[in-house]
Write the structure tokens for this entry.
Amino acid sequence: MQDYALTVDRFLDHGAKWHGGARVITAGHGEHAAIGYAALRDRANRLSGALLSLGLEAGERIATLAWNTQHHVEVWYAAMGAGLVCHTLNPRLTVAQLAAMIDEAGDRVLAVGAGLGMLAEALVSACPCLERVILLDGERPLATGGRIKAVELDDLLSREGAPVVWGRFDERSLAGLCYTSGTTGAPKGVAYTHRSNYLHTIRLLQADAMALTAADTILVAVPMFHANAWGLPFAAPAVGASLVLPGRVTDGPSLMGLLNRHEVTVAVGVPTVWIGLLDHLDAVGGETPSLERVIIGGSSCPETLLSRMESRLGVAVQTSWGMTELSPLGTISPRSHGPGGARGAGRPPIGVDLLLTDSGGSPLPDQRNAVGHLKVRGQSAVDHYFGTTESALGADGWFDTGDLAILDDEGNLTLAGRSKDLIKSGGEWINPVEIEEIVGALPAVGLVAVIGRPDPKWGERPLMVIEPAQGGDIDDGALRASLKGRVADWWIPDRIVRVEAMPLAATGKINKTQLRATYGGA
Amino acid sequence: MQDYALTVDRFLDHGAKWHGGARVITAGHGEHAAIGYAALRDRANRLSGALLSLGLEAGERIATLAWNTQHHVEVWYAAMGAGLVCHTLNPRLTVAQLAAMIDEAGDRVLAVGAGLGMLAEALVSACPCLERVILLDGERPLATGGRIKAVELDDLLSREGAPVVWGRFDERSLAGLCYTSGTTGAPKGVAYTHRSNYLHTIRLLQADAMALTAADTILVAVPMFHANAWGLPFAAPAVGASLVLPGRVTDGPSLMGLLNRHEVTVAVGVPTVWIGLLDHLDAVGGETPSLERVIIGGSSCPETLLSRMESRLGVAVQTSWGMTELSPLGTISPRSHGPGGARGAGRPPIGVDLLLTDSGGSPLPDQRNAVGHLKVRGQSAVDHYFGTTESALGADGWFDTGDLAILDDEGNLTLAGRSKDLIKSGGEWINPVEIEEIVGALPAVGLVAVIGRPDPKWGERPLMVIEPAQGGDIDDGALRASLKGRVADWWIPDRIVRVEAMPLAATGKINKTQLRATYGGA
């Protein structure tokens, strides 16, 4: 059969040739910019020529610090099509974190989107390797004390833009670089190949996955620096769907405006952004008539929020689970599924395989209805982290997600905490998530976290930290009583601590590292 | 990213592990056999061991002569999983044609399904390379004069079946061999690789392609020897859909029975089988309530049949175009599309690219709304035919389909005849299909074909052959008048011949080769 390299430039070629009616729309003040795939491909392709004219060489990284905009998509395809590696930076990280990533990647060029100039100036100061800045989305020139030449994207295009032939390299060449969020460990770089991104994209398009079609208009409320915006800037042109890019703003009023103005059919993002939308709709009595589906991921979603979304928006909600290391899709529930919580985070599509093991790495005998350590193998799963030669896989060849999970009879995944949060007491494991779910459901409890504390007799014993609900009041006896009979007696925490405000990480998750530092001493 | 070879054994592994509820059902007398993917995988895997025990070696071909049954699927995965090449034979061809294919492929083992024993006996006589026969579906032992040992599949499994490790070879290894039908030239072998079949399969699963899901039950009315039954025995376990295999019989009453007994949601086959179903439903007043979609291909479908299917069956009909050389899917119309004829045969999914050229091979400038010669490039398109080292591609790197086609503004494909049927008159081209469509719509005309006849002045001139409709009567003047003003005057055939019965090929298409031999002389 024909030799046909799986490179991501083909997605934009396809959209340009076969889907002339689709649009990429970027939200802005007043006017929203709209461009077809053919024109966008032309700009991105000439931008490839401009990037090469800056002296960038195949395989070299180029950093982007930008929100979801047309210009960001253009830089992305310009880099990847020319064999460069698009390194997306998360503007919500600290200068020190970002500088370390830029340094490790050896980025010489930084593309900076609107509103991020000040952060970029700090990065230029902190990163001697940076030589050039490209300004996107009309961002103003940077103050870098003359150290770096900044050029506006359209100026660069008109001065140096020249068509180049895209692709023609090995499909296992690197296409993108994305660092993990660092909420569960130090950020690590995941380097995607053209092949892994290509295969991930056609996985998304499957009818039992994201089921995107040429008739869809997709609102991408997940940032491009979060695992390639879950692959949507690849998937949309590959099937001829329109894209709506919200820029930075994803508050409720903005989302409602975008959904209705552009007749969005599919909206994609983490659970929290949809709370803002729902609250706004309730406040103003608004509707989103064109919207058919919402696809959520990034963190598990409370059943009450799922129900609220389905009833208030009148849409199907698809749940999913993924990781930066998986490109990111691991599992997804289909468009039509059973009611409510039965769906979990769905099943793995072909090309992803899951294994549950015990803490020693031995596969659970039945793989169903028992909590295990979740391991992954697959065509878009990490092999080793960027900048290391060390394998990221276990001796068994599987990638350990660090998650605990359970599979139901139909193979639907439900996450059950992080393995490093497990508490080993008397040689047996206690899973804090099971305790937290029971106690967290009590009306008087706002937030709850259970951590391990060294114990001379048992090795570790559980300690429970409670942030009471506003106006809530519950004594230790009642807290323990709520657990009685629902978990083993020896799982019930010996010590209970009350705090006024639970420490949270940047992502909104409870910061157990800090809790362990404060309360985890012997 | 992880190394993950794209081999087709993964589809059955996936179905076995993740979709325990799905079934492969084979129609039979009375009882219909049903098996889950886990049990089917176990049988196929142990059959791999049995095949290897017969002395077959990696890369070697094994022939199958069978209808759509569970046993046939088992042999197929057993062969491919073990690195053998499954060579599907079309029982509707002649002994001489099949013997030539077996000889070219060097098949040593032949698997024979129910009702095909006599043909198999003839092949054993004609093919010295055949050493073994495996009997499927309870077929009786063959009379081969003792030359060949025949063994029943379940006997072979119980005697020699042993688990083997599937895969672990290069994804560009051959997986299947299928000869073209020979209706438009001598049959040629197309050798599919694991990679090409894998990529083709996930193309089928896309929401804008066949959109198969784990909730579907698929009736496969296209034979496994026709380009891998359009890939469905791969796609069904890859997504966890159930398969209904009709064996040999696809008449109207049988189809209605299968659709309703097994609550089929998607039915796939050539247009003619659905005529039989519709006629039967009309005769008995039957309904097919579970059926949601029919996917057709193999030949273009008259608009009247499309409308009849949609209204009588209450289903969405998806049209498609493909070729054995494309694995086979080239284009497909989506589940939701515009009304009626506007859909054509749909658009190419990502991974298939189309080009229209003039007769000299130069791309048509606009690629839209003009008839051109249809060329293909893609990840599941032929590179060279089996047994040759010669490229099957043109100097431009594209595969010439031999078809004429037109693309509308949205990129939807409509076929417009075969390029070798074009008639060159006075240095200009006449397309017989355009004449045939106009004349064929006349009530008095049953079948019509226009061929070229050598002409001393013009090079060629068109000759029209008419099979009048039953009770139909129309004179030459009226036939010519129907064309006046609708085609150029010089396109109107000089000679008109009437025949009682139009010569047809085995596929039901008009045999123009025979017409040219009879009427095409100077």
Summary: The mean pLDDT of chain A is 93. The two ends of chain A are 65 Å apart (CA to CA). The CA atoms of residues 86 and 176 of chain A lie 5 Å apart. Chain A touches chain B through 55 residues (CB under 8 Å).
